[in-house]
Amino acid sequence: MDSGEGMRDREVFLEEVLRSAGRIVKRGFENRTSASWAMKGPQDYLTEVDAASERHIRETILARYPGDSVFGEEDGGEIGARCWVVDPIDGTANFARGLPHFCISIGYVVDRRPVLGGIYNPITEEIYLAREGHGATLNGKALSVSAAHDAQSATVEMGWSTRVPQSEYLSVMTALLDRGFNVRRCGSGALALAQVADGRSDAYVELHMNSWDCVAGLLLVAEAGGAVCPYLSAGDLRTGGRILASAPGIAEVLSVDSGTALIDAPRQALRA
Ligand code: IPD
Ligand code: CA
Known about the structure:
Bound molecules: D-MYO-inositol-1-phosphate, calcium ion
Binding site for Mg(2+) 2: 90
Helix content: 25-40%
EC number: 3.1.3.25
CATH class of the largest domain: Alpha Beta
Keywords: Hydrolase, Magnesium, Metal-binding
Structural class: alpha+beta
Binding site for Mg(2+) 1: 73, 87, 89, 213
InterPro entries: IMPase, Inositol_monoP_metal-BS, Inositol_monophosphatase-like
Shape: globular
Strand order of the largest sheet: 3-4-5-6-7-8-9
Strand content: 25-35%
Number of domains: 2
């Protein structure tokens, strides 16, 4: 395990790699055309910029830390004891259709414990960083989750994909609406988790999420004082799993409504 200083160096490096990938993604967004995207499957978009961003991130990480492994959305990869988990663009459908709500998300996991997380939207220039035990920041300012305690005034984002049967999705959505929550969906699960950490949203629920979409965001929420699911015991980095990340005051009811277990102590949440 790295010393605190070693991990601080890696956090500085994480910020650099997010910003350099952000330049590629921003340029790609500004220059995109309707021919710049293709479909990987139903409602699953792919652009050339996803591939370019992931290639850049992978090469930069392995040049600096050749003993680490990189596991990414587009090219997969090995999952070693020290693994960088990379989503080169989260919110690809928004990116392809010209909506500036997308980000790059990178988590760093050591022996199955998430220790660093970073999320960057290169259009708004918002950069979120978290280090295990050291809190979470947005553009350098410390974050805390919202004080929400009542469904009637709370907003939950619920992610959707074709990976989960529609009936399951609709029954959880119905339970949330019946409880009185406002439910929204903005198309980037990673940014949705970042917005729980910064208090602009009160919780995020998704019935299946891949690790590259959520490892960084779950650490952000836990480090901002939120309650999160035991992700690495519920699913692993390769298969993914069910996600809940919430302001503590509404976490219990959301756990019931979404059928997702929580870990009690927020800062212990990811150490399954
Ligand atoms: C998707 C987005 C979406 C979430 C899906 C993800 P992509 O990632 O985060 O909000 O609901 O589970 O697959 O395809 O934009 O990288
Ligand atoms: Ca994604």
